[in-house]
Amino acid sequence: MATREPVSLLKAKDNIAATWPDEPPRFADDHIDDFLLWCVKKNSNDITIQTDRPVYNEIYGLLYPATYRPIDAADMNVFLNKIYGPEAGARLASAHDLDLSYEIRPDRYTRIRFRVNVTAILSQGRDSASITMRVLPSEPPTMDDLNIEQAVKDAWYPRQGMVIVTGPTGSGKTTLLASGIRMLMERKRGCGKVVCYEAPIEYVYDAIKSPRSLLSQTEIPRHLPDFAMGVRNALRRKPNIILVGEARDKETISSAIEAAQTGHTVYTTTHTTGVAATIQRMVSAFEPNERSDRAYALMETVRLVVTQTLVPKVGGGRLGVREWMRFTDEVRDKLMDMDFQEWPSEINRMLPFYGQSMAKSAEGFFELGEIDRRNYIMLSNSGGAGGD
């Protein structure tokens, strides 16, 4: 019978340099942060921890094993307890996925942050779990880093009213929103008091120097149960700016409208594609007998809608392509004199005069050679429902 080689020799043959050199025979609580820090140092964008598979790092779009051996149920339980807590298993068993943030502080001056999703899966015939950890930058990018159009930057901070950032899942809405908050904080006069309600908190602003800005971040549902409660909380805190991570239901949309009507500047996101579709979607969240009243209240407060999608960039990476429109006094007055059901077609007609369509943005990137013909045609034909 052939003798079995020691695990250390087997790992050496499989290029141990590519996996965590301190990998233990069994993960324990005090291994988790050291392992995640090693993944970050390997330039991992996403870390995937899945039962019965090795941990994988996604580095520049490719998957690389980060552990030599597969993660078993006992290891997974350690990861879940460390990242979420002892009730993780019960939450997954009740058919809920988990969205949260996780933070490591290797020293008093450094914070390494992750956006985390935990989803129940079936693996080898058993209920199991998959953890996806997105490594977050230490500070938000600037609007210049994202190549945001000057007209969008100029319209970004109305004296009061609502700015809505939209796009499909994974389209960079949170990043765009965070870059806009950074721009306001870095102004000479700052931006006053900012209260943010996010699920989960992705970007933090500790490194942004802004002596005339005071920003606080509340995580939903960790600190408050929902976004609607967050907006009601904000109105008791006398902020200049309110950021609502997502206007996903009629209660949150109504609360955001109320905040904008009472003189605040409100920033929020929705999962829509296109300026006209955004207004239509927010109105349709209400019951039919409420829609007319809520539609005109929304139009009274909206100031800017930016919709973004990410498409592959020629030469690698991804590129944000945007459709946007300013809702000036003239635009709002004209729309409020019409039946709200006529708004989508009228907004599309006004779009080239007060903003830019997705097709026009895509055309500009295509002419510069930054996106290929396939994505240009897709964006031009679909009104922006491009790939993530």
Describe this entry's structure for a reader.
There is one protein chain. The protein is of the alpha/beta class and 388 residues long. The chain contains 14 helices and 14 strands. The strands form two sheets. The chain has an eight-stranded mixed sheet with strand order 9-8-10-11-7-12-13-14, with helices on both faces. It is globular, with a radius of gyration of 23 Å. The N and C termini lie far apart (52 Å).
Question: What attributes characterize this protein structure?
Answer:
alpha/beta; Beta-Lactamase; globular; 35% helix; six-stranded antiparallel β-sheet; disordered N terminus; disordered C terminus; single chain; eight-stranded mixed β-sheet; Rossmann fold; 388 residues; 26% strand; 14 strands
